[in-house]
């Protein structure tokens, strides 16, 4: 039924039961580490950690700015929509007639007010939906956690409380947990 090949290849997958057996990234890292006899120095690892921290910092900065912009747009557009509809509702026909005279418009003033109120409401809804669908809040929190973990890892390496091998393992975990981040294209 099952025959062994004449020249079996050595298994490159991790041993069964190993905690990272299902993670191809970890298997790739172990293979790369095995083929690189001297390994990475703590200085090289620190450089990579600092580089990743800078990347995470840029991500937090850009996405925090984007989130604030969307929140501000939603608040301002919603308030503007209310501001446009309230006077016509409270002032009634005398107010809209007065407004029509002030702007010397042939179109009824209430239609213009409603048009701009509708556009403002639409901007508010779109900004809110973009913010919710992009998960800015959740991603920012995760990136801040990653930034703190990288900082602790950097201090641990600098103070030699972790070996380079242990620190490399922790750094690989950080890389994996930061996979949600999309590259930011910021001119700097």
Question: Can you describe this structure?
Answer:
The chain is mostly helical and 188 residues long. The chain has one domain (41-177). 72% of the residues lie in helices and 0% in strands. The protein is built from five helices and no strands. Helix 2 packs antiparallel against helix 3, helix 2 (42-102) packs antiparallel against helix 4 (136-158) and helix 4 runs antiparallel to helix 5.
Mean pLDDT: 81
What is the terminal separation in angstroms?
63 Å
- Classify the beta-strand content into a percent band: under 5%
Structural class: mainly alpha
Largest sheet: none
Order of helices and strands: HHHHH
The tally of domains stands at 1
Give the total of beta strands: 0
Q: What is the 3D form?
A: rod-shaped
Count, helices: 5
Overall radius of gyration: 29 Å
pLDDT below 50 for ≥5 consecutive residues: which ranges? 1-24, 31-37
Helical proportion, percent range: over 70%
